[in-house]
Specification:
single chain; about 120 residues; mainly alpha
Length: about 120
């Protein structure tokens, strides 16, 4: 019985590694390969690139993205909890209250640090 489970898992592991390797190898042999200098240049809507390739971005972009991800993940956890709310009981309500409380503490911290205010450079 147990050996059968290991065989099934082994087959899935082998297929999980083998199928992408075979697909990528077949694609490499079947694709057209015609290297030209024009293909290795930077393409920006048909225009020649001008200026530096490295541009300095404001760190606030990343902070806003991080805040979005945090609250997006909160929604992902809250939705199934709300669907099964009647079956979960008091323990799950307390745990979700702690979870939401920690997120509120993080939001207050970000608000106090003025992460949510957009200022120009």
């Amino acid at each position: 019985m147990y050996m059968n489970n290991y065989v099934v898992v082994s087959i899935f592991l082998i297929l999980g590694v083998l199928l992408p390797v075979v697909a990528l190898t077949a694609g490499r042999f079947l694709r057209p390969y015609k290297p030209l200098d024009e293909k290795y240049t930077t393409y920006e809507s048909g225009n020649e690139p001008v200026g530096e390739s490295h541009v300095r971005f404001n760190i606030r972009y990343y902070l806003f993205a991080l805040m979005f991800v945090i609250f997006d993940v909160e929604t992902v956890f809250l939705y199934p909890w709300a669907v099964a709310f009647k079956q979960l009981g008091l323990f799950a309500v307390v745990e979700m209250a702690i979870f939401v409380g920690l997120l509120v503490v993080g939001l207050i911290y970000a608000w106090k640090k003025k992460v949510l205010q957009w200022t120009s450079i």
